[in-house]
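ok here's the first one, seq then struct tokens
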Amino acid sequence: MYLFDPFRVSKRAAGLVLPLLLGLLAGVFAAGAAAMVEPGRAAPGFRLQNLDGDTVQLEQWKGRWVILEWTNPDCPFVQKHYNSGNMQALQQFAAARQVVWVQINSTNPAHPEFRSPSVMRTWNQSARAVPAQAVLDPQGIVGRAYGARTTPQMVLINPAGVIVYHGAIDSIRSANTADVPKATPLLRQALEEGLAGKPVTTPSTTPYGCSVKYA
């Protein structure tokens, strides 16, 4: 004869439900940690030190177009765009149009891939990178504020301080330099449209690359 055992039922239910619940909660927290600031919203303000130790802040570029680039020299996806010259070409394209390019490294200091200001400066020089500013975000405050989850990850901010593009640099999600000329240049397209006074056709895409190495 079957005897109802509430403890046995609850244990069995817990064994089935608890993993699902934990998975859902993990997904919720992960999504919250990685939620990108959507285009159409005001760009979060920030104050960071550049590689020379000077404080820079988003507010100082009010009235200008701004690009934020999350980087990590050790990431193969970042290397793809620097080794091919794609990132430098975009930086030069932006500079010629008075667009402020801010390169951000949000790697935490305890991670093996953390690079000091002097090492980052040397890397930029060897890569012939030409960002207007290169800054470190060692506590990850700015990266988390924007929902930066990969390197590279790109944000385009208009002169009113509103994000008009957030996502991938291009359309081919690989670390192969041969794919650069075949890809749709998503960031460049967004910048060209914005500078021409047009709405950005594709304001949000899914970024690809290495994970940002937060603490």
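and now the second one, same deal
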Amino acid sequence: MTLVSRIDTITDVIGRIAAWAVFALVVVMAGNVLARYAFSTGTVWAQELEWHLMAPIALIGSAYALRHGEHVRVDVLYAGFSPRGKAIADLIAAILCLLVCLIVVHLSLPYVAQSFANNEGSANPGGIPFRWALKALIPIGFALVALQSVAEVLRAVARLRAVARLRAVARLRAAARLR
């Protein structure tokens, strides 16, 4: 198993966990709506749980989206690129993504550490404690995107090498025809 396939496997497993968070979010939101409109009641913790579930969906699910090519890309331009141009664009994008993710991880660690040291919880009475656990998803999510970006860099480099090999073979065939 190659490094790229190992990273892809990790990302797929984590993506499935994020998918279960989507299911949980739907159940919690439906319960909140039912409680609010059918029983004229609701709780702070249930409302906070909605965005506590949204964080792993966005932060952990981002690596999964990148893995499966569901990230934002200007396809109008990209579609017109040659295979080599697409590989170069993917390589540049993956390197930039990796750099941004590493910066966010670096900057978010003190933020999470401070939250953990203060045992930060909800400011609302009846809210969810352990807000630091939610904040910890910031460096974790960006580290996962960084890891997937490494796989995307390796994949783009492999595509560039394959294009170069095809060009070399085409040049050899053309030279053989001229003889």
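notes on #2: Residues 3-178 form one domain. The chain has six helices and no strands.
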